Structures are given as structure tokens and as C-alpha cells.
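Handout, page 2. Input:
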Amino acid sequence: MFDLNHWLPNIKNTRSGNFFLIAGPCVVESKDLIEEVAGQVSTICAKLSIPYIFKASYRKANRSRLDSFTGIGDEQALNFIKEVCTAFDLPSTTDIHSENEAAIAAGFVDVLQIPAFLCRQTSLLQAAAATGKVVNIKKGQFVSPESMQFAREKVFETGNSKVFLTERGTTFGYQDLVVDFRGIPVMQAFGSPVVLDCTHSLQRPNQASGVTGGQPALISTIAKAGIAAGVDGIFIETHPKPETAKSDGANMLPLDKLEPLLEKLVKIRQIIL
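Output:
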């Protein structure tokens, strides 16, 4: 079993019986943006007694096109995440892409996220584990739930048992993803908390335009099904104006729609407990 308070001492509302939430914009576009999102989401989570981890990528390394936005600069973005989360007393997460990034990012955030395309990258997993931080491994679109036990073991073998496993959909043809909810109990059986990424699971990759599409109208459907299936955590990328977001705007939830969705999810959680 896992103890979120032991892993993340500043996380709140862990005795509520609720799922935990990982949420924030796709990438750090500015300090004002992440302050707005972190502030509003932390207020909502305090009201609904939901444990909350703020999320924002400090750099986007995996983009479809060469001219896609990748970030405002690594050091500046990481500093903004740390400053904002310190101000709101929130744990935080960001994704890393190479071994040397693990130690750098660990100085600023509490959870290191392993992107789905890199979930089998042994050296990256071991470098993240060696920091002692919580390691959130996203299940690759090409990987079965059963196979995620081996990614998890790579972290455990370094002596770090603080692992999340995140479902984010499985490739279904060239331009679609599908969530197999049977994978949630399969991965939970390994003994680590399982998170459902409700936004990236609805991506429409490999579009002819070179810009990833999405189906944000179905975020509520995926999230409600995930809570009903018993996930431990929910991952949602959210933005005040997704249509102007510099990354993944096509599959982010508008910030003003987050609270009514979380209210529904809390009610479902109460029913199944």
C-alpha cells in the first residue's frame, strides 16, 4: 500500500477518501498562467477535499513539428513552478526526458513524470529513481498494462518504492487512442497507485497538419468511468483558454469546467467506497 503523506508531506486532504488530482496546464507559458491555474485549482480542491498535485511541463521535448512551442527556458520555467507551488504550499510534478534532467528537475519538483514514449527507457527510470522523488510512469501507447510491472521494477530495484503508474490510452490505428479500463485493476495489483490521464487519453495524434488533435468533450466521460473503475488518481490538463494554449490546447479542459466535473467525480467516489 502507499501513503501519499509519507511520499508528499505537503499534500492535503489525504484522509478524505477521495482520489488525488494531478492538474495544471500542459506547459509553463508564463508565471501568471501557472499562478492562475494553481490558485484556482487549489481552492477548488480545498473546497472538495481532494488531494492535489500541481502539474506543468517546464519543457516540451516531444512535439509533432519543428516549429512547435517547447518552452520559455528550462531554468526560468522550473523556478516559476517552484515559486508558485511554494506560495500555494502544493506538491508539484513535471516531466523529464533524459538522465541529466532527473537531478536538475528534482531540485524544483516533488514528482518526476516519465513520458509515455519513454516508459521503457531503463537509464531514465533509474536516474529518476535515484533522486528519491516520487516517479510517475506513464504507460506507453504501445505497452500492455501487464508490461508496466517491469517499468515499475526498474524504479524499485534502485531502492525507491515511490511509484505512480498512469494510464493514458492505447494506440488504436494511426490517429486515435482508446482506454481499456481493464488495465486499471491489472496495474493496481502490482501495489502502486494508478492514475488515469483523462486528457491525453483523448488525443488524436498524427494529424496531417502536424498539430495533435483531441476530443475534450469526452473528458468528463473518461473521468467518470475511471472513478467508477476505482482509479487512485486523476490527471487533467487544464487552461483558462485552451484555444490560445501553446501546447495541447486541443485536448485540455477549460479551467471554468473543472469544478463541476470534480463535484461529479467526488459523488461517484462516495458511491463506490
